[in-house]
Amino acid sequence: MKRILITGGAGFIGSHLCKKLTEAGHYVICLDNLFTGSKKNIEPLLKNENFRFVEHDVTEEFCTDIDEIYNLACPASPPHYQYDPVKTIRTSVIGISNMLEIAKKSSAKILQASTSEVYGDPLVHPQKEEYWGNVNPIGIRSCYDEGKRCAETIMSDYHRQFGVNTRIVRIFNTYGPNMAVNDGRVVSNFIIQALKNEDITIYGDGSQTRSFCYVDDLVNGLIKLMESNYHKPVNIGNPSERTVLELASLIIELTNSKSEIVYKPLPSDDPIKRRPDITLAQKLLNWEPTVDIKDGLIKTIDYFKTKI
Ligand code: NAD
Ligand code: UDP
Q1: Is the CB of residue 91 below 6 angstroms from any atom belonging to ligand 1?
Q2: 148 CB under 6 A from ligand 2?
């Protein structure tokens, strides 16, 4: 039984990770300030004696003796991370610094949830880990993108300078149950709009692409990476790429919705295309996604039916 700290554990991905690791027999401490996360996501775990919830902000110091840390604390949807951009970048940079100090003192392994956003609006397609990215340092997405890039830097320096046992995962667009109803990301927005027969809001002309990974696949990848001995960044995502317009059509079909598509302005710096090259994860971790988008969307639609 390991003692595992999961920051952002009451959020979408974090809640699935808390469940999986608690069920595997570990003692899990979930640390979250509940900014975008919710106690509802971890409610079934609260009565488990091997699970502890601590309401805490990662920008404040925290002390515990621990074997592994998964650092997921950070708002991930553009409307939420742009709501208080100064807080967002502080969460990434100060948050990971505080967690690395705990890892250093406890000789713990630490995994940082990084993002495909470190590639910005990529000029290389699909994105390999060696690509350094094309990121605007002063735009509306920069608080998130540059915060995550800086967190990767701090992780790499703690590894080189202090020998901390680090892992960096670059997560590509992930969806599934436990996304917040007000999350604002494309999958949850489209499903909620479709279920309510409201207009589906496409930003831009819908030709921009993303590659969507179901949360169970992602969580398996995170655990496999933690169990590996690899310190450099690894992409985890589903390489099956589609346009935002194709996603809207698929969700309308799966929900049997009467919604119409409407077009809204594209926010600035919105990446035109995104698809992970997962060759490294396949070779290193023997990992690849297994859930087809239709199956994953059906499970997500069923979840949102219970929420609205
Ligand atoms: P989420 O918003 O559902 O979860 C983030 C969690 O962090 C929430 O529970 C929130 O309350 C908590 N949090 C935020 N600021 C905090 C702070 N200062 N102190 C303590 N807790 C704080 O988002 P998610 O999709 O579950 O993302 C989890 C992690 O994965 C994030 O770090 C995100 O950047 C990364 N990621 C997610 C995706 C994706 O597609 N879901 C893609 C790339 C990276
Ligand atoms: N998007 C959209 N309508 C929405 C929400 C998002 O067309 O209601 C677009 C958004 O502009 C982007 C893509 O869908 O091109 C993915 O957006 P999301 O916020 O999910 O993630 P990210 O841009 O960070 O990949």
Answers
A1: yes
A2: no
- CB atoms inside a 10 Å sphere around CB 180: 18
The answer to whether position 27 is within a domain reads yes
- Which of these, 239, 238, 247, lies nearest to 187 by C-alpha position? 247
185 C-beta neighbours (distance < 10 Å), count: 19
Counted domains in the chain: 1
What six digits make up the tokens of 90? Answer: 């502080």
Establish if 294 belongs to a structural domain: no
Distance CA 212, CA 175 (A): 7
Q: Is 255 in the pocket of ligand 1 (CB under 6 A)?
A: no
- Which residue minimizes the CA distance to atom 6 of ligand 2? 186
- DSSP H/E element including 38: none
Q: Is 295 contained in some domain?
A: no
Please give the positions annotated as active site.
144
**245-299: per-residue pLDDT in tens?**
999 999 999 999 999 999 999 999 999 999 999 999 999 999 999 999 999 999 9
Task: Output the domain CATH number for residue 279.
Answer: 3.40.50.720
Q: Which atom of ligand 1 is nearest to the CA of 117?
A: 43
Task: For 64-130, list the strands marked E by DSSP.
Answer: 68-71, 109-115
Rounded Cα–Cα distance for residues 66 and 28 (Å): 10
**pLDDT, tens digit, 9 for 90 and up, residues 177-206:** 999 999 999 999 999 999 999 999 999 999
Euclidean distance between CA atoms 86 and 183, whole angstroms: 19
Residue type, 224: K
CA 26 to chain centre: 22
Nearest CA residue ID for atom 19, ligand 2: 185
The parent domain of residue 40 ranges over 3-176+212-238+275-289
> Residue 126, preceding bond cis, omega within 30 degrees?
yes
221 inside domain: yes
Q: Rounded to two decimals, what is the model's pTM?
A: 0.98
